[in-house]
Amino acid sequence: MRPIRKARLASLIKEEISLILQGELKDPRIGFVSVLAAEPTEDLKECKVFVSILGSEGEQRTSLRGLEAARGKIQSLLRNRVRLRETPILRFTLDESFQKTQDIEEKIRLAREADEAAARERESRDKSEPADSEDQS
Question: What is the pTM of this model?
Answer without folding.
Answer: 0.69
